Amino acid sequence: MAASFVGRAQELAVLGKRLDRVVRDGRGVALTIRGRRQVGKSRLVQEFIDRTGLPYFYFTATKQMSSPESTSSFLGELAESSLPPRPELIPTRTPATWPDVWRIVTSALPDRPSIIVIDELPWLTEQDDVFDGALQTAWDRLLAGRPVLLLLLGSDLHMMERLTAYDRPFYGRADHLVLNPLNPAEVGTALALPPADAIDAHLVTGGLPGILPSWPSGMPALDFLRQECADPAATVFSIPEVTLQAGFPGPDQARQVLEAIAGETRTQANIAATAGARAGSLSSGTLSPLLRRLVDDKRILAVDQPLSTQAGRPAVYRVADSNLRLYLAALRQAQALAARGRTDAAYALVERRWSSWRGRAVEPIIRESLELAAAAGALPWSGVGAVGGWWNRRFDPEINLVGSDTAPVAASIFFTGSVKWHVSPVDTRDVTALRRASASVPGVDPEHCGYVVASLSGREKHTDPDSADVWWGPGDVINAWA
Predict the structure, then answer these.
(1) What 3-state DSSP class applies to 456?
(2) pTM assigned to the model
(3) CB atoms within 10 A of CB 455
(4) 103-132 as b/e, with b when 16 or more CB fall inside 10 Å?
(5) H-type helices in 139-183, by residue range?
(6) What class is the 363-481 domain?
(7) Within the chain, how many helices (H) and strands (E) appear?
(8) CATH topology of domain 9-178
(9) Which CATH number fits domain 229-361: 2.30.130, 1.10.1760, 1.10.10, 2.60.40?
(10) CA-based angle 388:421:236, to the nearest 5?
(11) pLDDT digits over 80-99, tens only?
(12) What is the mean pLDDT of the chain?
């Protein structure tokens, strides 16, 4: 099984640097930590606290709890924490307001450095309109002058950004840390997997730490999924299910749009037709705001635009989290079969859809790995700053990889490429087809354009290695992060 805590060296260093400031200056430091659900915010902070050995208070808000209930719970947990030198002095009656709470917290602080954590902060701001202002006042007048590290955590990315926006009370008072999923190299290290299997494991888990403890060390992805199909309550099912329920509690239009995109309906016109179903296509006035909300506020969708020297259309949408993408594409139906005791049928469904699903889902990882390699100077082209794809309105041809200086409209195109993530090695016909199709990309000069082939299984033995400038395999993908 994976270790209980993996990776996060950079994030632990960020937290350590802020605590060093508290110790050195004797003054407070505030840090917001935001990231999607199940990405490991709480686990990261608890690991950091445990390593410091300092007194601390950790409070997790409860959704839809009333403000008086929250303040009462807050003080009760404060009295039971390691923060106050004399817990018996914490008042037992419920204070009327959050300003009262913060005065009590300040009186409970020890003279030496300490840590205060508020988890799921957006739920407190939903409960009480004055919470933000009370937090700002308490920080300015009471906490900033004390040796305390204040960590504010939240899964609602939009609300966490709003907390410190220019027009909000806490503006300019906190540093910010965005916690992303584990990268493919970290997943591979945690599970002791070779590069190809590490990439598969990252696709299945979405890099979410909560799934790793149930994954046996060294087990390939399909074997793991076979194991999980015997358990309808497995985390590979429950974590994306919780994500859906938290963000889309009912079968509303936003969820219909999300499910349409998970079914590889990628363009806005096709999404409108699929999500509208019997009621007819969704109007642009309805669909466009929904897509903006899912991309900008929820961050549950990503939008890709064709990359070339000319502005192009159409934009295409995808589910940003590969774990949720797999759940909507196959695991949800597999879970339903497993719940009925049909475990063999559940796994057969996953296995049947796996190859085509993986071939599309791996593309963002390949592109990001090439961007990282370019930034490290590991590609033959020094000017690469962005890697995307290109397609026309007919998606014929569709180029998986385009390397340029900027995106989505480039000044220079350095290379085009193809992703062939299947068990068969790439042969000469694949490279010839790439070269021919690349001529359609605006800005490509066939005489000077480079070519990249990303392949799971390498190249066929008779394929000329010089037919592409870069052959990008699983080891190269992992090394880009390592």
Answers:
(1) coil
(2) 0.90
(3) 21
(4) ebbeebbbeebbbbbbbbbbbbbbbbeebb
(5) 157-163
(6) alpha beta
(7) 20, 12
(8) Rossmann fold (3.40.50)
(9) 1.10.10
(10) 95
(11) 999 988 888 788 676 778 99
(12) 91
